[in-house]
Amino acid sequence: MSIPNHGHVQWLPRRPLVTTRTHEAFTFALRRAERLGHDDVTDEHVVLGILEEGHGIAVAVLHHLGVPLDTLTRELEAELPPVGTPRTPASKLSWTRSIERVLEGAVVESRELGTEYYGAEHVLLGILRDPSSATSRVLARHGVAYEDVRREMERVRAMQPGA
């Protein structure tokens, strides 16, 4: 899977289908990176975008696992580079190599779970596949690991209507 070196979110893999909320979360991530004057979009920007979108399974899972979302937001923001002068428009921002790995992991998670879509919850699992990432380390400080998110995600999905 190749990610073009630009800020448009049209490149998100479409098979399995990407959810609207996930698309919105990536858009929020782009806007945040642009607003902060960053040249690249990182895992932290993406999780901040998921939190900013504010709905869906990923946010519910983090809440059910007892992660204080306001605190998580502050901690992820602290992992980002210092605020720069906005000079790169969102359409020109680049995605880090780790984002490509995250999306590849999200697609794998979606397929392993037998879903026809991938959502922010799959992206979160894709991030947690790399325990050395800054985002994984921040979540680990809250006692959250890949296995916890996967287990809680399945529980939350089972509680949804039509599950």
Description:
The chain is mostly helical and 163 residues long. The chain has a single domain (15-159), classed as Double Clp-N motif, CATH 1.10.1780.10. Helices cover 57% and strands 5% of the residues. It contains 8 helices and 4 strands, in the order E-H-E-H-H-H-E-H-E-H-H-H. Helix 2 (43-53) packs antiparallel against helix 4 (69-79) and helix 4 (69-79) packs antiparallel against helix 7 (134-141). The longest helix is centred in the N-terminal third of the chain and has 16 residues, at 20-35.
Task: Describe, in short, the structure shown.
The chain is mainly alpha-helical. It is built from eight helices and four strands.
What characterizes the major β-sheet?
A: 2 strands, parallel
Q: What is the topology, as strand order, of the major beta sheet?
A: 1-4
Question: What is the CATH class?
Answer: Mainly Alpha
CATH superfamily: Clp, N-terminal domain
Tell me the count of domains.
Answer: 1
Distance between the termini: 30 Å
Mean pLDDT: 80
- The DSSP helix count reads 8
Share in β-strands: under 5%
At the fold tier of CATH, the topology name is Double Clp-N motif
Apparent shape = globular
Number of strands: 4
Structural category is mainly alpha
The percent range for helix content is 55-70%
Rg over CA atoms? 15 Å
The succession of helices and strands, N to C, reads EHEHHHEHEHHH
Oligomeric assembly: single chain
CATH architecture: Orthogonal Bundle
**Uncertain segments:** 1-11
